[in-house]
Amino acid sequence: MIGKYSLLQIALFVFGLVSCLLYPLSIVWPSGWSWHAGAPMASHYFMMMVGVYATLGVFLMVAARNPAANSSLIWFTVVSSAVHALIMAVQAVGDPMQRGHLLGDVPALLTVAVVLGGLMVAQGRRRGA
């Protein structure tokens, strides 16, 4: 516990905020955060992903208020982040034009999965004890 908030609450808020910032991240570092050539707005697919991640980000920030009541959303975020990272890593290894993802969103997604998953397990142990 850090002051009034748990580490899980802080992580949920921070990861939620970063998810909401996917579009600006793609402008600052396109090779690590954008999945196409050209400006972020040039891809309908990318803008759809921005919308999905911004929505997830808002819900993660809301979940930070009461993580226990939002465990399904948190576990969805853990598993979907790991799956997304795995698929993106395979694609980045196979396509030299996508290698920047191995230093950008792949580690970011794995960090989300490991941190949130670990904090959820730790919280479950504390509640069970």
Task: Describe the overall structure.
There is one protein chain. The chain has 129 residues and is mainly α. The chain contains 6 helices and no strands. Helix 4 runs antiparallel to helix 5 (71-94). It is globular. The chain starts with 6 loop residues before the first helix and ends with a helix.
Q: What portion of residues belong to β-strands?
A: under 5%
The whole-angstrom Rg is 16 Å
Q: What structural class should be given to the helix and strand makeup?
A: mainly alpha
Averaging pLDDT over every residue, what do you get?
Answer: 88
Report helical residue fraction: over 70%
Q: Determine the number of helices (DSSP H or I, runs of at least 4 residues).
A: 6
Globally, the shape reads: globular
N- to C-terminal distance: 16 Å
List the secondary-structure elements in sequence, H or E.
HHHHHH
Main sheet specs: none
Low-confidence stretches: none
Number of β-strand runs: 0
